[in-house]
Amino acid sequence: MTESVPTEAATETTCCIVGGGPAGMMLGLLLAREGVDVTVLEKHADFFRDFRGDTIHPSTLDLIDQLGLRGKFLQIPQSSITTLDIVVGGTRLTPVNFGTLRGPNKRIALMPQWDFLDLLATEGRTLGSFHLLMDTEVTSLLHTGGAVSGVLAKGPGGPLRLNASLTVAADGRGSTARAAAGLSPVALGVPIDVLWFRLPTPPSPPPDTLGYLRNGTMLITIPRTDYYQMGMLIPKGSFSRIQTDGLDAFKDSIRTNAPFLAVAVESLRDWGAVKLLSAQLDRLNQWWVPGLLCIGDAAHAMSPVFGVGVNYAVQDAVAAARFLAPPLLAGGPTDEAMQRLQRRRQWPVRLMQPLQQQVHRILSDAGAARLDSMPQWQARLATLAATAARPFTARLVGRGFLPERLRSGAREKPRM
């Protein structure tokens, strides 16, 4: 539907990016470095929110090195994990050891996502062709001759009309821009949700452990600088029942699963400290229409399994910048570039999502019960299998099926 409201302030840009998350901010920075005039619209007034994706994987650390941002990145308070351990019953398994990776980045960095986004925004602001509009929400798309030609938005200064050669929907799994373009993802189904909360680090914590599986409950323990970011996997739609059972029963399940948190769990005073994250797994069959491209969660929502959602969103942005910069700089059409981008990036997604579905089945009620009752000889075999698979699993989780590299080319000089 074509929108035309003459009272709005009109602005021109070459590329309008809807959403200032990891995909949108990375794409904005990379295009601006190539000299493309780019405007990122973020509907919130700041980045300071409790995100789920606070992991920076080795492939993203590689990109930070390529961008020359290692020094600034290391100045941000952070913690690291070099292995992903899971305790099943009383058996500790280490299916992922990033020490087997090649190159300098053999860890996952853990930091609040707002710090990572601030780093990208700060670097972007040094470039004359990078524009970031916070507290600016897209309300609809503009169309010219059947193609998307920009957006209508509302911001602190009132209504905004932003004309753009290309609009990129990077506004997440509930993408407004995607819906306005008439694109609908195919839901693959996820049998789990996640309860997200924090607990203080106990005085004598155990070795860093991704998760504990006991009595059919999977508890995620992500170590931060001074607390645990916790996640409990629950059957989808069961949160209301868990609340009905009471907060004490919820805390008891945490103590049973991870006894070392027996004291820390008392910090949970009410349900307001526990957030429900509705897990999704879906993808678009078509990532683009003339004038608009979807990337990241707007193109393919990943489940929490392996924590690769941010990693895949960033990889989309890197590939998109490589394909889109040449036609955008030349002022030419972008349809072919968007086709090439989808052909390249849809395959890593289509390989990873079935693996996530398989883990969902393993962690279902029946699967978790089988793991809980695993005899010792099976536990020993599982330990051997996990050890043998480490080189593959480290690359799968740490870098993904198709890690991307920056496009070589001219870079815009920073603002003086």
UniProtKB/TrEMBL annotation:
InterPro entries assigned to the protein according to its UniProt record, in alphabetical order: FAD-bd, FAD/NAD-bd_sf, PheA/TfdB_FAD_monoxygenase
Keyword Oxidoreductase belongs to the record: yes
Keywords: Monooxygenase, Oxidoreductase
Oxidoreductase in keyword set: yes
One GO MF term: monooxygenase activity
A Pfam family annotated for this UniProt entry: FAD_binding_3
FAD-binding domain boundaries: 12-328
The protein's name in its UniProt record: Monooxygenase
Phylogenetic classification of the source organism: Bacteria, Bacillati, Actinomycetota, Actinomycetes, Micrococcales
